[in-house]
């Protein structure tokens, strides 16, 4: 299952905040578990007031789920228009919510649903009570934890991993997640933190659905400062965000040459022609001590590109990566 499904079972959980390092032993994860809706609202209201948060208009969700598209589990091959630039990120959206691993409440196991946004999310604005999981029998629940882990670096804060007992494949299944608190976030290169209004919702991909690319965007040099596992080769760097934590298929190993060779970036030149560029390497690997703790982010380390070239698509072949449930990806053509 990996750490994506085991965070609540007494395992230390790191919270990616500048000022706070959370762990189960220190009790700061207990902050997330014990935070009430009222205290969370008060904390976020204070944060909003201090920053002068803008943008109060409710935003619509974008449903990329296989269930909504009438696809069978494991059949998602992505040909979606993504969010490649800040110009396309004028409002907050949930890009994916995927049931990545299932645990049995009887043996202390837990479920996880990583929720990926098109914005960076302010860790100080997040509490478990901000998320409501709805099951297919009409019942609802809230996570025990809402954490920035395994994706815990500053430039990875667009995925919030929800941990709890959300359902079971043989019983009531989680089918949607709704934002119930006032999160704050910002587009990747923006300095303006904005409120993400309550009510934003997204269907949850079922557990048998393999991982898929949820987002892709160009990393700036500033974003890579202090990043200990960023690309060590190349001149241009593209973040590829998956719907769940990924390791190499079929054995859950660390990503190697096969995955690197399968990735490609499609760019449009100023004259309208397109070129396909292969990465020199993939960065943001070996995120934690165990490979099973790898997050849902890959960085494509690209060579020098023609001036004015614009990233328009990310591709990777089928059965290259797997999620914590062991489900492989299908062929990906993620269009920005």
Keywords:
336 residues; mainly beta; Immunoglobulin-like; 2 domains; four-stranded antiparallel sheet; 3 helices; 21 strands; globular; disordered N terminus
Description:
It is built from three helices and 21 strands. It has a four-stranded antiparallel beta sheet. Strands 5-4-8-11 form a four-stranded antiparallel beta sheet, with no helix packed on it. The protein is mainly β and 336 residues long. 49% of the residues are buried. The chain folds into two domains: 3-77 and 91-209, Immunoglobulin-like (Sandwich), CATH 2.60.40.1220; 217-335, Immunoglobulin-like, CATH 2.60.40. It has helices at 28-34, 37-51, 257-262, and strands spanning 94-97, 111-117, 120-121, 131-135, 140-141, 145-147, 159-164, 174-179, 183-186, 194-196, 201-203, 213-218, 236-242, 247-248, 264-268, 274-277, 281-283, 297-302, 310-316, 321-322, 332-335.
Question: Which SSEs are present, and which pair or pack?
Answer:
Blueprint: H1 28-34, H2 37-51, E1 94-97, E2 111-117, E3 120-121, E4 131-135, E5 140-141, E6 145-147, E7 159-164, E8 174-179, E9 183-186, E10 194-196, E11 201-203, E12 213-218, E13 236-242, E14 247-248, H3 257-262, E15 264-268, E16 274-277, E17 281-283, E18 297-302, E19 310-316, E20 321-322, E21 332-335
Antiparallel strand pairs: 1-2, 2-7, 3-9, 4-5, 4-8, 6-7, 8-11, 9-10, 12-13, 13-18, 14-20, 15-16, 15-19, 17-18, 19-21
Contiguous low-pLDDT stretches (5 residues minimum) are 1-76
- Provide a count of the helices: 3
Average of the residue pLDDT scores: 79
- CA-based shape: globular
| Counted beta strands | 21
Task: Determine the strand fraction and express it as a percent band.
Answer: 25-35%
Q: Strand order of the main beta sheet, please?
A: 1-2-7-6
- The CATH topology assignment of the largest domain is Immunoglobulin-like
Portion in helices = under 10%
> What Rg, in angstroms, do the CA atoms define?
19 Å
Structural class: mainly beta
Let me know the largest β-sheet. Answer: 4 strands, antiparallel
Query: Ends: how far apart?
Result: 31 Å
H/E topology pattern: HHEEEEEEEEEEEEEEHEEEEEEE
């Amino acid at each position: 299952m990996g750490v994506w499904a085991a965070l609540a079972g007494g395992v230390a959980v790191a919270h990616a905040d500048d000022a706070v390092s959370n762990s189960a032993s220190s009790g700061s994860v207990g902050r997330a578990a014990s935070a009430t809706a009222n205290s969370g609202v008060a904390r976020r209201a204070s944060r909003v007031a201090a920053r002068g948060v803008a943008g109060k208009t409710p935003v619509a969700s974008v449903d990329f789920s296989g269930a909504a598209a009438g696809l069978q589990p494991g059949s998602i091959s992505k040909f979606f228009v993504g969010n490649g630039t800040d110009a396309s990120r004028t409002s907050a959206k949930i890009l994916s919510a995927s049931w990545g691993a299932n645990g049995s409440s009887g043996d202390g196991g837990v479920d996880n649903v990583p929720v990926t946004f098109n914005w960076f999310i302010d860790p100080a604005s997040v509490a478990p009570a901000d998320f409501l999981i709805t099951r297919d029998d009409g019942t609802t629940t809230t996570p025990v934890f809402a954490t920035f882990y395994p994706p815990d670096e500053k430039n990875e804060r667009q995925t919030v991993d929800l941990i709890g007992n959300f359902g079971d494949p043989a019983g009531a299944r989680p089918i949607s997640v709704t934002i119930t608190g006032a999160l704050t976030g910002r587009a990747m290169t923006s300095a303006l933190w904005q409120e993400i209004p309550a009510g934003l919702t997204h269907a949850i991909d079922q557990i048998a659905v393999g991982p898929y690319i949820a987002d892709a965007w160009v990393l700036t040099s500033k974003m890579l400062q202090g990043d200990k596992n960023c690309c060590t080769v190349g001149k241009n760097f593209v973040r590829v965000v998956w719907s769940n934590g990924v390791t190499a298929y079929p054995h859950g190993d660390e990503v190697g040459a096969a995955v690197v060779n399968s990735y490609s970036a499609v760019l449009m030149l100023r004259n309208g022609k397109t070129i396909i560029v292969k990465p020199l390497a993939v960065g943001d690997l070996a995120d934690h001590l165990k490979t099973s703790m790898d997050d849902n982010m890959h960085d494509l380390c690209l060579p020098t590109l023609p001036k004015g070239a614009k990233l328009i698509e990310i591709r990777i072949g089928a059965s290259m990566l797997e999620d914590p449930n062991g489900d492989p990806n299908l062929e990906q053509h993620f269009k920005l």
